[in-house]
Structure formats: C-alpha cells, structure tokens
C-alpha cells in the first residue's frame, strides 16, 4: 500500500476540490469502520465550524497517520492546527493552485525553526 505511512494507517485530506480529487485519484480515499471518510472538500460555502470539526476528528482518529490540508484552509482554523503538536498524525500544509504556499505561516516549519540555531546553517 503505497499511500499508507504506517501499516494500517491512512492519509486524511482537507482541501479544495482539485486537491482532494487529486488525492482521491491517487488512491487515498478510505472509509473507516464507522463509514467516516478521510477527506473533506472545502468550498466557499463550507462553514469554518465544519472544517474545524473534520480536522479535530482526523487528528483524533487512530487510523490516520498524516493530515494534509491546504494552507489557505489551515489559516481559517489556525488555532486548531497550531494545537496539533503530537507526532501522529502529522499535519502537513500544502499549497493549492488558487493560493501559494507561505512558509512563514506553516506551523510545523515554525516549530522546526525553533529547534535549530541560525548559525547551524
């Protein structure tokens, strides 16, 4: 299973339609035992509360190893994304074709910067 990070673990995706469909075409789509999908397509009509609920649900699931989220959507729920500091699932922010990636807003990258001294580079 090329799309799993660990045996029995899957990737969850929160993003715009193009991003999620791309991952689904790559074989990422799964339903857990409770018939809950591991993805959420977000559009302009998706309430922020729904996005945050899906994110919190994915982070709490033990069958998910990685949560991939479009960075512009992560900005809508930044507090929750920044609170997800556990090792698993890892939270990865990615760009979308509508919104470029801004490394200064990436919570994982910002935490990693704190681990090193500038003189190390």
Structure description:
This protein is of the alpha/beta class and about 120 residues long. Helices cover about 30% and strands about 15% of the residues. It is built from 5 helices and 4 strands, in the order βαβαβααβα. α1 links the parallel β1 and β2 (about 40). The longest helix has 13 residues, at about 50-60.
Helices and strands in order, then pairings?
Layout (H helix, E strand, L loop, with lengths): L9 E6 L1 H9 L13 E3 L6 H13 L3 E7 H4 L3 H6 L6 E5 L12 H7 L8
Parallel strand pairs: 1-2, 1-3, 3-4
Mean model confidence by pLDDT: 84
The largest sheet, given as strand count, sense and whether it forms a barrel, is:
4 strands, parallel
Strand content is 15-25%
Class of secondary structure makeup = alpha/beta
Spans of at least 5 consecutive residues whose pLDDT stays below 50 are 1-6
Using the CA coordinates, give the radius of gyration.
Answer: 15 Å
**Share of residues in helices:** 25-40%
Count the beta strands: 4
The number of helices is 5
Q: Give the N-to-C terminal Cα separation.
A: 36 Å
Shape: globular
Order of helices and strands: EHEHEHHEH
Question: Strands of the largest sheet, in order across it?
Answer: 2-1-3-4
């Amino acid at each position: 299973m090329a799309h799993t990070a660990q045996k029995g673990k899957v990737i969850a995706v929160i993003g715009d339609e193009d991003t999620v469909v791309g991952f689904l075409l790559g074989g990422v789509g799964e339903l857990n035992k409770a018939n809950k999908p591991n993805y959420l397509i977000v559009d302009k009509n998706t309430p922020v509360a729904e996005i945050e609920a899906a994110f919190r649900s994915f982070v709490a699931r033990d069958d998910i190893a990685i949560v991939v989220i479009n960075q512009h959507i992560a900005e809508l729920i930044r507090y929750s994304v920044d609170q997800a500091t556990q090792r698993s699932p890892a939270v990865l922010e990615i760009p979308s074709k509508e919104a470029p990636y801004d490394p200064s807003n990436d919570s994982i990258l910002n935490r990693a910067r704190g681990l090193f001294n500038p003189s190390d580079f």
